[in-house]
Amino acid sequence: MLQTPLVITQNEHGFTRWITGAFKNALRTHARAAKGEHDRLLTEHVRDLLHFLITWREPSHDVSVSADRRYTSRFMQRQFVMSIMCLAMLCVTAASMVAAAPQDSGPIGAPKAPPPAVPQPAEPLPTERERTLSPEAAPGQWQLEFTPGDLRVYTDPQTNQHFWYFTYKVVNRTGQDRWWAPKFELLEDHGRVRRSGQNVDPIIMKRVEALIGNRLIADQYQVLGEIKQGEEHAKEGFVVWSDDDLRATELHLFIRGMSSEMQKVQTKAGEVMMYKTLKLDYRVSGDPAERRGEPVPCEHREWILR
Question: Which residues are within 8 A (CB) of 260 and not within 5 positions of it... i.e. 6 or more apart?
Answer without folding.
Answer: 141, 142, 143
